[in-house]
Design goal:
The protein has three helices and two strands, in the order ααβαβ. It is mainly alpha-helical. The protein is elongated.
């Protein structure tokens, strides 16, 4: 993002906003792709009737996929049994306003 802001010194405010929104959307798409890949690869590591431990909110900016949750969801969609231990949970925003 810093590069986009640095290059934007000659741009008008609406153009800067558009550039930053475009970059943020690209970052979110990358995060979704990474979480999907993590879910795909991670679910294969959990044996049938295996256990998964999650800590805190299980990560990720994408509310549907997350990181640990993506593994669990993939496993469940493949109709495999999995037990989930949740040792701590916090709100998604973790106290940010």
């Amino acid at each position: 993002m810093r590069d986009e802001v640095g290059r934007s010194r000659r741009l008008l405010i609406p153009e800067i906003k558009r550039a930053l929104v475009t970059k943020a959307q690209a970052l979110c798409r990358e995060d979704v792709a990474a979480n999907r890949a993590l879910g795909q690869h991670g679910q294969a590591l959990v044996p049938d009737a295996g256990n998964v431990l999650t800590h805190c909110n299980a990560g990720g900016c994408n509310r549907r996929l997350r990181t640990a949750i993506g593994v669990i969801r993939r496993r469940w969609r493949r109709e495999k049994r999995v037990h989930v231990w949740v040792d701590e949970t916090r709100p998604c925003s973790r106290g940010r306003a």
